[in-house]
Amino acid sequence: MPDEIESLTAAPAGGVPNHPKWPALVVRSGAAPEDMGATFAANGWGGTWEWTVYDFHHYHPESHEVLGVSAGTATIALGGEDDRALEVTAGDVMILPAGFGHKRLAASEDFAVVGAYPPGQESPEIARADEGRVKEALGKIRAVPRPTCPLGRGIIEDRWTE
Question: Which PANTHER family match (predicted)?
């Protein structure tokens, strides 16, 4: 994976807890679009699917998630109500720690992502933004360990420190 990596942090906002310690990571041209699923599997991530990103704020309180853009372009909101709008294109990879909010704002007709999760987290809960659940969700999020399976060249290990 190349060296252009963006780290994005976000405080709880609009019913989305976000991760209290670890940033979302965006790796530009992180993998060949046609090889996203194979790249994730080769690094131990499973529960792979290919589709899109939901058009509502959501997060996974007990799972980290990697999203690789396999086709097209999109504007993805990261973080919740005070979103950071992020333009992504085929080949880009987003690594989201547990609890980090995301939502599709706009997309080309051919937009698709491949998603995957660390071992033991392959069937994530999809939690919608909800102010009443943030405190409970933060307890779950803090309990999710850093993945033991890397995505290459220390991307997670160097940025998600204990």
Answer: BLR7373 PROTEIN, CUPIN TYPE-1 DOMAIN-CONTAINING PROTEIN
